[in-house]
Fold this sequence. Notes:
By secondary structure, the chain is α+β, with helices and mostly antiparallel strands. It is built from six helices and six strands; from the N terminus they run ααβααββββαβα.
Amino acid sequence: MSSKRLIEQARKACETRGARFTLVREQVFSFLANSNSAIGAYELLTQLQQLDAKAKPPTIYRALDFLIEQGFVHKVESQNAYVLCSHFAEQHKAQLLICDNCGDVQEIQCPEINTELEKAADQYGFKVQQPTIEAHGLCKACSEA
Ligand SMILES: [Zn+2]
Ligand SMILES: [Zn+2]
């Protein structure tokens, strides 16, 4: 999907939910929509500063918090970076396949994985709060190369 269409979709979703898709939020969203791999907050800030020289780190973090809350973006903890979500649902449990060679991040949704993880964790009295699972390896293109 083109980034233009993704932005349209995000704006519509916000309208439906009564959330404000402000210019900064839209700009950060579009940086992520135009990238195939995850982007760190610092790099996002550098990109934003080309449009608005006054942008500061809290600007980026507030925009990212909003986008995560809306389910548009996932944080990739192991890369300390952010990636656009391809599913556009409200908050959901996702699994991320991260290529250690090219940095490509592919999202899959397999609810059984989370259900089983939660069941297993429960046996230890552990409550899973951050349910995104990250798997590292090689993407199709890299493993065929
Ligand atoms: Zn997602
Ligand atoms: Zn790869």
